[in-house]
Design brief:
By secondary structure, the protein is mainly beta. The chain has 2 helices and 11 strands, in the order ββααβββββββββ. The longest helix has 8 residues. The chain binds zinc ion (ZN). The site of zinc ion has 8 residues, from loops. Zinc ion (ZN) binds next to loops. Belongs to the MsrB Met sulfoxide reductase family. One of its GO terms (cellular component) is cytoplasm.
């Protein structure tokens, strides 16, 4: 599969990461495991999304380190979850319809390891008007 690697500013061919739940459980904290592997949602305002030094940086998948969002696309949505108006590349995330809880939403996952990240909504700011509402626990600064 191809993903965008911002370190070399190029598309890169990488292997998909397929681990079993018990393998993930060994390398993730219980909270990281619950959110990313069991499709959990952290409570609003419950975790702090780290601010990169000099306000320039990239958030990656906590499971596999794939680059997901640029700090420059983060905005304050007031929801209590880190919010971004676009992913670093459409190749690096997977979007799919999620109808759990009887509501149709679009789930966002890591394209390389399938980690559940959050959901995307259509009420974001310009230029995209999208709001990627992401669990801070699913992200790490690269
Ligand atoms: Zn990942």
């Amino acid at each position: 599969m191809k993903i965008y690697n911002p370190k070399i500013d190029k598309l890169e061919e990488v292997e998909k990461i397929n681990k079993t739940n018990s393998e993930w459980q060994k390398i993730l904290t219980p909270d990281q495991y619950k959110i990313t592997r069991l499709h959990g949602t952290e409570s609003a305002f419950s975790s702090i999304c780290p601010v990169p030094p000099k306000e320039k940086g990239i958030y990656g998948c906590v499971c596999c380190g794939t680059a997901l969002f640029n700090f420059g696309t983060k905005f304050e949505s007031g929801t209590g979850w880190p919010s971004f108006f676009e992913p670093i590349s459409p190749l690096n995330v997977i979007k799919k319809e999620d109808s759990s809880f009887g509501i149709i939403r679009t789930e966002v996952s890591c394209a390389r390891c399938n980690a559940h990240l959050g959901h995307v909504f259509n009420d974001g700011p310009p230029p995209t008007h999208k709001r990627y509402c992401i669990n801070a626990i699913a992200l790490k600064l690269l």
